[in-house]
Amino acid sequence: MRTVLFLLGLCGALPAADSVLSRVDAHAANFGEVSRRIWESPELGFHETASSALLQGELRSDGFTVEAGVAGMPTAFTASYGSGKPVIVLMGEFDALPGLSQKDEPVQSPAKAGAPGHGCGHNLLGSASALAAVAIKEEMAARGLKGTIRYYGTPAEEGGGGKIYMIHAGLFRDVDAVLAWHPGDANEVSLHSMLANNGGRFRFYGIASHAAAAPERGRSALDGAMIMLNAVEFLREHVPQETRIHYIITNGGSAPNVVPAFAEVNLIARHPDAQVLAGIWNRIMKCAQAGALASETRLEFVQGTNYSNVLPNDELAEVLGRAMRKAGGYQYTAAERQFAESLQKTLGAPAHRPGPDSVHVDKSEGSGMASTDAGDVSWVVPTAQFTAATFVPGVAPHTWQAAACAGTTIGRKGMEVAARTLALAAVELYDNPAELVAAKAAFQKRLAGRHWQTNIAPGSKPDFDYALK
Amino acid sequence: MRTVLFLLGLCGALPAADSVLSRVDAHAANFGEVSRRIWESPELGFHETASSALLQGELRSDGFTVEAGVAGMPTAFTASYGSGKPVIVLMGEFDALPGLSQKDEPVQSPAKAGAPGHGCGHNLLGSASALAAVAIKEEMAARGLKGTIRYYGTPAEEGGGGKIYMIHAGLFRDVDAVLAWHPGDANEVSLHSMLANNGGRFRFYGIASHAAAAPERGRSALDGAMIMLNAVEFLREHVPQETRIHYIITNGGSAPNVVPAFAEVNLIARHPDAQVLAGIWNRIMKCAQAGALASETRLEFVQGTNYSNVLPNDELAEVLGRAMRKAGGYQYTAAERQFAESLQKTLGAPAHRPGPDSVHVDKSEGSGMASTDAGDVSWVVPTAQFTAATFVPGVAPHTWQAAACAGTTIGRKGMEVAARTLALAAVELYDNPAELVAAKAAFQKRLAGRHWQTNIAPGSKPDFDYALK
Amino acid sequence: MRTVLFLLGLCGALPAADSVLSRVDAHAANFGEVSRRIWESPELGFHETASSALLQGELRSDGFTVEAGVAGMPTAFTASYGSGKPVIVLMGEFDALPGLSQKDEPVQSPAKAGAPGHGCGHNLLGSASALAAVAIKEEMAARGLKGTIRYYGTPAEEGGGGKIYMIHAGLFRDVDAVLAWHPGDANEVSLHSMLANNGGRFRFYGIASHAAAAPERGRSALDGAMIMLNAVEFLREHVPQETRIHYIITNGGSAPNVVPAFAEVNLIARHPDAQVLAGIWNRIMKCAQAGALASETRLEFVQGTNYSNVLPNDELAEVLGRAMRKAGGYQYTAAERQFAESLQKTLGAPAHRPGPDSVHVDKSEGSGMASTDAGDVSWVVPTAQFTAATFVPGVAPHTWQAAACAGTTIGRKGMEVAARTLALAAVELYDNPAELVAAKAAFQKRLAGRHWQTNIAPGSKPDFDYALK
Amino acid sequence: MRTVLFLLGLCGALPAADSVLSRVDAHAANFGEVSRRIWESPELGFHETASSALLQGELRSDGFTVEAGVAGMPTAFTASYGSGKPVIVLMGEFDALPGLSQKDEPVQSPAKAGAPGHGCGHNLLGSASALAAVAIKEEMAARGLKGTIRYYGTPAEEGGGGKIYMIHAGLFRDVDAVLAWHPGDANEVSLHSMLANNGGRFRFYGIASHAAAAPERGRSALDGAMIMLNAVEFLREHVPQETRIHYIITNGGSAPNVVPAFAEVNLIARHPDAQVLAGIWNRIMKCAQAGALASETRLEFVQGTNYSNVLPNDELAEVLGRAMRKAGGYQYTAAERQFAESLQKTLGAPAHRPGPDSVHVDKSEGSGMASTDAGDVSWVVPTAQFTAATFVPGVAPHTWQAAACAGTTIGRKGMEVAARTLALAAVELYDNPAELVAAKAAFQKRLAGRHWQTNIAPGSKPDFDYALK
């Protein structure tokens, strides 16, 4: 593999690439262990106490200055090395998903039934960024590179929006570039975006009554929710087909013999364009109001997730593309291949996806169908992101298969691809600050006069228990 | 049967009863034929041109002064004999029901598929009242009884509310009492009421669009209707159990590949108490508004039927009770019995209902589960009504079985019971005007300070085609 | 009040009534305190550990032999005194309702938000029966009356069906009569029944998928539930109006960005006639199957509550009627009157209900609109029940108003009426065992050859956490 | 314009192009008049008697042999000239759409309220193809070109599927190529497809009952339809986003006071891939079955429209592309420009669409979001189709705006572009039969071993009144 890398390296222009890659290699085993420890104790958003502390400890012992509990969130932190401009930020997520507990086996087998699991590979995400940060710091120190490298521990990406509170807290104000990545089933750099989303809790308040003796005196909050949701289903036909609307009922009454006085819906909508989404959201709100109107209940809305679509950065994507070509992919061992093939048999449709030994760099745009608070960062700082092959080809995030991969050597090899790419890209930027100027210009061009908007009010307090409800 | 009648007659106090009954007998065959001719050419509400003309002709040739096209309705008429007080009115309905075409056979067999039929026996209703009117007129003439007897031809009882326009036109202003009857499966006088109802058309206006190419540009009027109706279904649990809400979709879009720009619901709600009904109606209206709100369509409401519950008259019910006991029931012939038994086999549940040879007089109150514009008359004039056994025991109105009976000798024997009862009661009232004073007092007591209310505005024009839509 | 009682007493034939009433009086304060302690610490069905222990302790210290944890239920118990025939059973319930926590004030004010409360007055129910049992035991002991008096501590009446497991365990096999009561807003003995009910959990199993990235690969269990429930709403129009169907959604998905793989509905249906109910239930099951069919999910049904309608006992009702006339009602103090009037102002409609100073004894049948596992007992042993005025007139069970009353002196006065009635009736039966023979005959007549049926299989284990879900 | 054409012509290889274009010019005014006459008397599918006769007459008088009433359809016809191979077919549609009556004005203004209108421009479609056929025939005659040119008058494209019956009748068996076009808002040749569709009527049969007196005895057919449709709405989230499902309710009950014994839904589903559509259709059918199951009604399905997606032909698209480049676009007059601008103001969103003066030729694939029975033809004969700018840029088919354009000189200029393109392409094929061999090979490649499938059984009779229901 290394041979391939050298050959690929010829088409790039990466000074000191070998040195950077050696530094990543030197710490890879340690941060691989870190990723595994986080994977073994999955923690939900805003409750990633041990995961956050573990990463903080590593970075501190590697020479970073760590500030914990930033932006009013106990598990958020910053780790910094160096001083002055330019300031480059790597981001680390480490929250797990509810109900996705899984062993590192190619059959569905929860480690603990009903418990959370790393179905989005954030154990790798946070660890790879930390690995890269350490390698970058060592390179900066060795070569006396000017500027600051920071690692931002960003909690609760899965719905809690930790990064948004960090933006509100001003933590991105002096940042020149953010380099981000996400676990995936292939090594890819592109100009892809992600969906803007918006969500929250629709609470209906009715009047309780004995459901058998006096149902006519009751006003059912659950009726309000049901009428709203039926209306939302009718709405689906009349929104652009890329729209996504999904919901759960988090409270559907307390006892069947009592007309429900309270009911709650948790709903998220998404669209590639935040402005179109705002129009759709307005219509969803009308459905909710209709539910309250028809059931004679009272509606209350509690803002939840609200992520912007990702604004790609053409310049940084070029830098990352060069870096990934240099970083290269990886080969499966025989055991890994067997694991991958077993896992692929559990997937419904055949996967026509590239293997982990290849890297894909292009300028395609399109939109991934998930959402991330990295999108919000991309509206305030030049930001680029890529995926690395931590999951077996064909495996989608938020599945038990992804959770399984995230605990294996496949996941760890993928996180090394990510760390190599991040480290190579960051060092290139320190070496050529002009690229950061170009990145800023590319950022302004994509903004096209618009600016970041969010429904999460500055100064508001996160809903720390959002993932428990 | 006549023997029984004489025995029963002893407990009453009916002067000249024999004479009155003879006069009914003398015209019974002719009006029986009239009822059959109307039955053979069923006409929907406001379109009862031939039926109305036939009855007008009979009454005119029997010496009544006929005024046609009263109250702005071509098929409404008044027929009058005598002059001055007291004024007693008999009411005649003659409209048929859509889709209930039926031969006079005990198996479901439309005379003409999809055509109207006399499933409510109004061919008998109008004819029996006319038969009674003629007998009363002859008795008044023979004995020089003081006062006026009138026959009101009241169109479109099945939803068009002809009587309400006749009230608005002032036709009931000088009336002292109204004696009414309705075809049924037994001979009964009671203090029963009928349900108040309210109804109309909910029209939704949306935006058409190609349903495949641009569904997101359309706003579906049908969605508006569906969301409204789903909400109405949820409402059912939370209204008093005696409530009835029923609807049809009269326009559900014009082509499946076009987002419907128009949709229409025809809905009726009912409750024994008009005031409670008004509250329920308010909630139905909210469901409709919710449908429009959630689908971004425009709602228009067109008032339809609005009948008051029937206000019983304790005094007139006593008079009718005496009259029916004197009038007596009737016996089946062997052929009629066979017809009745065949018909009863087509009914789901066994009928524990009294036979046509008995008469039932009591003071039970309760509410029948249908509605009638005779209810509105009962709020402006002392009114009483009864049923006569024109249908085989167990047969409900608005069924093909009822339509079958209405064309047979069973129906005609029932209508004779009705005519005898009406004639005997009216003559008793002419003989004892004090009973009309008592009826007025009983009326005031039941009103209890309330007064007639209707959503049909004075001066508004009937929707003559309501039954065709 | 006592004066009134003596006057009323003349029409009865209650030997030793004064003595019995004195015995009740002597223990009333203590059991009033017991009722208050249970009220202050409301416990849900099958979790009434402290409440059950408290009543057991009282009865044990009053000389009863107590057996705890009977019929496989930790909080069920029997307390027995005497030996041999006849065997008369009083029943004590003591479970609270979820979400009805309330202070003893005439405004809605939870003692602890979201916590359970005694909205059905079972704190009084269990205490009054225990008070009566002690008085009866003392009277039996004093006069050497033959037979056995038992108190059955029956847990989880609110849906758990403790009594059914006690029937299955054979605890009613040697019983000659059961005397039961229930808190209400008036003192009434009649032949009223209660609704038969049936219920359970409808579980839908779908396929999880990322709701934004691959909704088309998911099969939503929540869709299954929603389609089922929409269909149930349409069903409401087409069942007899006395039917009741009510439900909550106990699991509506785990995260809004995951297509729900599991959803659960808890639904109860009721009708005065268990046989009609079975037909309706069959149609509800079709709605559930339709939900699974249309959403391509799998349906699982878990049987829940299943209570029989109450079979009245004409003979025991006569005994109870005599007893209640002797027991008499009670007067409000000025403070109680003020409390009552304040509370009544919180009720929507004016209450035309009898006051607590009157007693109502008649043979009306009809059906109360709630359900009870006392209904099941009534199908296996001659059983009669009545209500006592523990709630302010107009207050319905399962409301915060009822929960408030249950903690006041009004509730305690009502429970004394109940205790006096129970004690007088039981002693009459020991005195006149022939009445028990007549009660047995009346029981057989009402059974009319039918026998008790239940969906709760003999030997099955209760769902101890049913009220927590 | 002509100058432009000559310049463009240099890049093609069209022998005798000038001659062909002259022939089209010579007949353009006449067929423009024909298109206007058809536009003035819009006729619904299978009822295009006058439109069909008009086109037959023109072709007959121009020397074609006409056979009317082919394939069992009175308004279908073939018109033929020449003999032997190759056989090239042009297709002419002439049916209108219900409810789209419109004057040739840039404001919504029906010529006759509620009447049909040419909202898909088929008045132009049939006329342009006839114009081309005449020009081709003259060129063949003048130059002695070998082979046969045919015009197929194909009725009821808007849902009736006339072409499918013509395939079943063997009319396409000896055909070498079909050249087709469709009115649009731009001049475009590509490899675009259209959606496969499937549809039909879902009929529910219930039990009628008086909706107020005995709703519990009724089984509502409308409930069946509503439950089905609610389930279909829930289905939308879980099918691929390109799917289209749309429906109307063609019968929603006959009278609001009668439980509907009959209800009917007309539903169409579409997807770019017929095989995927079959899977989706299966799930829609389950929704319908669920509706019947839950409402205890009976379901009947009557097959309606079933069109295949369009199989592009790479070779014929090249021929058409060359022809259209030669044919060129057209310029607006000042009056036309004003009309266009007025009309565009009535469109919700700004139209970024090419003008009529440009032509667009590429190999893009994608799928248009409508469906056509030309798709079925494309599965049995090498077929290619294109659009010409008959509508103002931004105007979508099936709108009043399209209907307005179809009656103006804009529409007529667009149809001339189409006729020129068709004529040039056909003559090129007669001149170079090798291109037809290549077209056959391209056809086989796209088939990839599959063959045409349809739910319309061979020998079945069309539903001639489908558009009237």
Distance between the ends of chain A: 46 Å
How do the strands of the widest beta sheet of chain A line up side by side? 1-2-4-3-5-12-6-11
H/E element sequence of chain A: HHHEEEHEHEEEHEEHEHHEHEHHH
Largest sheet of chain A: 8 strands, mixed
E-strand count of chain A: 12
Mean pLDDT of chain A: 94
Percent of residues in β-strands of chain A: 15-25%
The oligomeric status of these chains comes to homotetramer
User: Nearest-angstrom radius of gyration of chain A?
Assistant: 23 Å
Structural class of chain A: alpha/beta
The helix content of chain A, as a percent range, equals 25-40%
Tally of contiguous helical segments of chain A: 13
Report the principal-axis shape of chain A: globular
Low-confidence stretches of chain A: 1-14
Largest interface: A-C, 50 and 50 residues
